[in-house]
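1st attempt posting a full record on here, be nice pls
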Amino acid sequence: MKKVVMYTLSTCPWCMRAKKFFREQNIPFDNIEYDKADEQTRERIKEDCKSHGEDLSFPFVKIGEEVVVGYDPKKYSRLLGQ
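the predicted structure (as tokens):
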């Protein structure tokens, strides 16, 4: 299974839906809440987003080497091979 990493905001409703999607599909994921992270982690997240050619926007979901910005369960499923 492809590794899933997600950058979210703790108060973002779309981020909450994205996390719920992966939990309901029983797909493990790593999550970092940007607004609760320390400054060093925030800088690392910004650089990671830029390295994928994206602006800092949430949710930011990495599935394997692919990136999905925003809540898009159809794309999540496609990238996971479901």
